[in-house]
């Protein structure tokens, strides 16, 4: 019994090792006649990564000799990696800027951004100038915009997030002008923050927000310039605050990468796009 | 403490109450966390959840590949860090006792390294292992990065363990004419086991809970790893992704957290028992 524990630990590791080994040395799957084989690496936006991962899985199941590794790290990283060649395809949840014109973008879906409040907040609509005034600290109390007498909790996104860039761009603001009470990273975190503070205001992805509203989370989406924030309005282009989810390539594109991009833009993945609460694009 | 009527010893009693309260608070916070995780996650646990691969970005299916990746990353990390860590600790405690310039430099750099935020290790690991050494996003890169991260913890606590061994042991061994390696192997290391175990437990905890450093090194791929050169998503990275990037991933994140906590407990218990039976008993029994 002296070496019982040693045996247990060794078994644990040996078991894992054998499992991995036996799975790694599988016979190469049959070629389905399309000739596609090889490996692709995608890096970039954490908003696009879960969707890209699902698309990659479906692509792999259709082309068994292909392996696609999806990594994350943010839109800026996707752009840098695509340029440097560390990734075959970059991912960015925003449109390319003029100084990034060396890259080619391939839009696979759209996403909108909605201003959200706590469900019990009586404010029904805010104009663009009001939103600007709230975010720059000129309006600091809800009673200045027809709400209760309570200070406004301004929730802003962290630097480097493409939602922040889109928000600033739309309202022609600079991040240093914003007087934020709370700075958050991801959509989910934003929703949790606002659902727990009746006097908070923030902005998150429409897809995520609609899903949370349907689940009964205590948030409410505000219309922008009278247009309801909904996936339909993002799809028909009337909603003012929307962004493309892009795959990015730099220079010459391999046959495999081109095939994957074409697949990611095809109707074959519309159900996956919708399952992530984004808007598919019609080619 | 016995309450005696007539003697109002209020400073003593205040201290007692405060000390009890702090202990209760710590226990309360621990129970609250565990209770919260269990309440949200227990319904998502099943045998299939433990062995299947994830579907629909983790909102369906299971976490089998993540468990395997986590164990592999941890295995690489320990296989590299334990020998180097114990070696350095022995050198520090037995060969560079008095200090000396180099000894002080090593200790100082270890203390600085122990306080470096994990994201810095992640960027370093990404630059060195993934890009410069060409390992790419792989379990190997992740394990090696974690090894760099836990080494300071391991070395410092193992060194403390060795220093706690009474000098009488060393003197008696010298008097008996034992060789330096025999003293080390048969007396000092077994006697220093408790320190080593503390270092291991802390190191394993830090390694299993790591997200930031692994996102850039072992990566995000949720496929069952085929070799150490494959990218593999660990449990912590999976929890982070479910909680932050996937709408509706909350409950699955909690269920994964239960698995992570259980894994941590199992690995810790195994490590302590292993070290105890293997090393410590050699001096307490014989």
Explain what this protein looks like in three dimensions.
The complex is a heterodimer of chains A (283) and B (286). By secondary structure, chain A is an alpha/beta fold. Chain A has helices at residues 4-24, 49-62, 75-84, 128-135, 162-171, 187-195, 206-214, 231-235, 255-264, 270-275; strands spanning 38-44, 66-70, 89-92, 103-118, 153-157, 182-184, 200-205, 219-222, 242-250, 279-280. Chain A folds into two domains: 8-110 and 244-275, D-Maltodextrin-Binding Protein, domain 2; 112-235, D-Maltodextrin-Binding Protein, domain 2, CATH 3.40.190. The N and C termini of chain A lie far apart (68 Å). Chain B has 286 residues and is mainly α. Chain B has two domains: 13-44; 47-285, MetI-like (MetI-like fold), CATH 1.10.3720. Chain B has helices at residues 10-41, 47-51, 64-95, 100-114, 118-132, 139-163, 167-175, 180-191, 193-208, 212-215, 235-244, 250-285; strands spanning 54-55, 60-61. A two-stranded antiparallel sheet of chain B has the order 1-2. The longest helix of chain B has 36 residues, at 250-285. The chains are: A alpha/beta (283), B mainly alpha (286). At the A-B interface, helix 1, helix 2, strand 2, helix 6 and helix 7 of A face helix 3, helix 11 and helix 12 of B.
Oligomeric description of these chains: heterodimer
At the first level of CATH, the class of the largest domain in chain A is Alpha Beta
Secondary structure: helix percent of chain A: 25-40%
Overall mean confidence score, pLDDT of chain A: 84
Task: Describe the global form of chain A.
Answer: elongated
Our Rg estimate of chain B from Cα atoms comes to 23 Å
The proportion of strand residues of chain B reads under 5%
State the helicity of chain B in percent bands.
Answer: over 70%
Number of discrete helical segments of chain A:
10
Indicate the CATH architecture of the largest domain in chain B.
Orthogonal Bundle
State the largest interface: A-B, 42 and 38 residues
The CATH superfamily label of the largest domain in chain B reads MetI-like
Overall pLDDT confidence of chain B: 88
Counted by DSSP, the helix tally of chain B is: 12
* Largest beta-sheet characterization of chain A: 10 strands, mixed
Total DSSP E strands of chain B: 2
Q: Kindly estimate the percentage of residues of chain A that lie in beta strands according to DSSP.
A: 15-25%
Proper CATH architecture of the largest domain in chain A: 3-Layer(aba) Sandwich
């Amino acid at each position: 019994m002296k070496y019982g524990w040693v045996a247990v630990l060794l078994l644990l590791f040996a078991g894992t090792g054998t499992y991995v080994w036996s799975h790694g040395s599988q016979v190469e799957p049959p070629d389905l006649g399309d000739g596609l084989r090889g490996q692709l690496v995608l890096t970039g936006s954490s908003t696009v990564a879960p969707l890209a991962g699902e698309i990659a899985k479906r692509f792999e199941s259709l082309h068994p000799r292909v392996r696609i590794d999806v990594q994350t790290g943010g839109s800026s990283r996707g752009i840098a990696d695509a340029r440097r060649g560390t990734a075959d395809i970059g991912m960015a949840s925003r449109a390319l800027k003029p100084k990034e014109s060396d890259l080619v973008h391939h839009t696979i879906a759209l996403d909108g951004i909605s201003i959200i409040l706590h469900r019990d907040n009586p404010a029904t609509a805010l104009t663009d100038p009001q939103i600007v005034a709230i975010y720059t600290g000129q309006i600091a109390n809800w009673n200045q915009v027809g709400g209760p007498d309570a200070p406004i909790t301004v929730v802003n996104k962290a630097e480097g997030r493409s939602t922040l860039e889109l928000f600033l761009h739309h309202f022609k603001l600079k991040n240093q002008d914003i007087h934020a009470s709370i700075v958050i990273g991801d959509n989910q975190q934003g929703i949790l923050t606002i659902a727990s503070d009746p006097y908070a205001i923030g902005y998150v992805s429409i897809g995520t927000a609609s899903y949370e509203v349907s689940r009964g989370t205590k948030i409410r989406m505000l219309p922008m310039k009278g247009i309801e924030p909904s996936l339909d309005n993002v799809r028909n282009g009337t909603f003012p605050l929307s962004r493309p989810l892009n795959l990015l390539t730099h220079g010459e594109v391999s046959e495999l990468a081109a095939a994957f991009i074409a697949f990611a833009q095809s109707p074959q993945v519309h159900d996956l796009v919708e399952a992530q609460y984004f808007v598919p694009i019609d080619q | 403490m016995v309450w005696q009527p007539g003697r109002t010893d209020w400073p003593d009693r205040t201290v007692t109450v405060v000390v009890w309260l702090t202990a209760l608070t710590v226990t309360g916070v621990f129970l609250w966390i565990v209770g919260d995780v269990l309440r949200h996650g227990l319904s998502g646990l099943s045998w299939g959840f433990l062995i299947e691969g994830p579907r629909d970005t983790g909102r369906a299916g299971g976490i089998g590949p993540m468990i395997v990746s986590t164990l592999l990353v941890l295995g690489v990390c320990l296989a590299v860090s334990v020998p180097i860590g114990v070696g350095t600790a022995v050198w520090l405690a037995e060969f560079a006792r008095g200090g000396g310039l180099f000894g002080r430099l090593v200790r100082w750099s270890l203390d600085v390294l122990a306080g470096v935020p994990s994201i810095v290790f992640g960027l370093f690991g990404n630059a060195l292992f993934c890009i410069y050494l060409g390992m790419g996003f792989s379990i190997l890169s992740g394990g090696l990065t974690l090894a760099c991260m836990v080494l300071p913890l391991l070395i410092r606590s193992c060194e403390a363990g060795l220093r706690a061994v009474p000098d009488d042991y060393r003197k008696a061994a010298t008097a008996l004419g034992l060789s330096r390696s025999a003293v080390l192997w048969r007396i000092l290391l077994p006697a220093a086991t408790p320190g080593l175990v503390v270092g291991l437990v802390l190191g394993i905890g830090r390694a299993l809970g790591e997200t930031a450093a692994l996102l850039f090194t072992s990566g995000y791929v949720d496929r069952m790893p085929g070799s150490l050169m494959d990218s593999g998503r660990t449990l912590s990275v999976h929890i982070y992704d479910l909680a932050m990037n996937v709408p509706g991933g909350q409950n699955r994140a909690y269920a994964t957290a239960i698995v992570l906590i259980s894994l941590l407990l199992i690995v810790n218990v195994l490590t302590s028992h292993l070290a105890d039976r293997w090393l410590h008993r050699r001096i307490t029994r014989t």
